[in-house]
Predict the structure.
Amino acid sequence: MAGKRANGEGSIYRRSDGRWAASLSLERGRRKHFFGKTRQEVATKLNAALKARQDGLPIPGERQTLEEFLKAWLEGIRLSVRTTTWERYESLVKLHVSPRIGRIPLARVTPDHLQRLFAELRDRGLAPASVRQARAILRKALNDAVRWGLVGRNVAALTSPPKVEHAEIRALGPDEVRVLLDAAAMDSLEALYVLAVTTGMRQGELLGLRWADIDVEHETLHVRQALHRTNANYEFGGPKSAKSRRMIALTKTAGGALRRHKVRQAEQRLKVGADWMDMDLVFTNEIGGPIDAGNLRRRSYWPLLERAKLPRIRFHDLRHTAATLMLGRGVHPKVVSEMLGHSQIAITLDLYSHVTPTMQRGAAEEMEIIVSG
């Protein structure tokens, strides 16, 4: 007995044994069949297959493994995420997820499978943040599996995320910042370090900064793109989040450093001549191209710290330095959050909770002035 076919649903019918079935035409005259106890169950499977075919993915089978699904899912999202993001997803799945639970049929993966996976990865020394990201990838992938009718629930959403302890922040104090900038005064990348400690911009945002994004006269800049390193090369893309696209007011020190930097760059451009790569970048290598982050660290940043006799902190700690100094001087956390490009002020307050006692002392002193007249 044939069931009534909905628009675009495909071939769905009821077999003589009472079960429902659907068939989908494939290339070279082949057909894929789906079976279920109800018409809705079969329609869901058929719709998932039609969606997979539309997206250029393999047609899911009832015995599809988690590894097969994740491989197809990764291919499907390749063009919708940054290359660096996709490479990170692919690496975590290939190295840590598939070798351990990839052979389990997709429909039979349970929360317990995933919870034990996360515990094993943690016990083997994988960083908690990476374990947490593996869970996020699985949750995102399985959410699509639910939407496509391949599974009935998102088992990753039923697991507990691994706790991530924030690494201790090593921020420079005011005197150390002055020592650092004094040592950088004659450096060709002086303006890079001045911007890092006065704006809190991320390294990728600094290396992707263009002259078109800077208004030196009014001492402001706009963060519109960032440099992202990929396995093969590099690429320019949007900043980390929507809130990361922002305008930042510059200090006079930063404005002066940028003016000097523009003069130095013009001299270097004349020296290189026709070989100069005209990419409008503020911070470049010797021929105008993007600066490799590894080269920046080895050839410029670490030697600068050594000249200044400062500890070898990460470049990212200059961002922490900017935030800590601003909060310590009483700048409102909302303003600091906007300058840093955090998606929520809660992130700022959580990261820099070590500054809270100083902020509270300032608040107490202000309250004393109010109540004591």
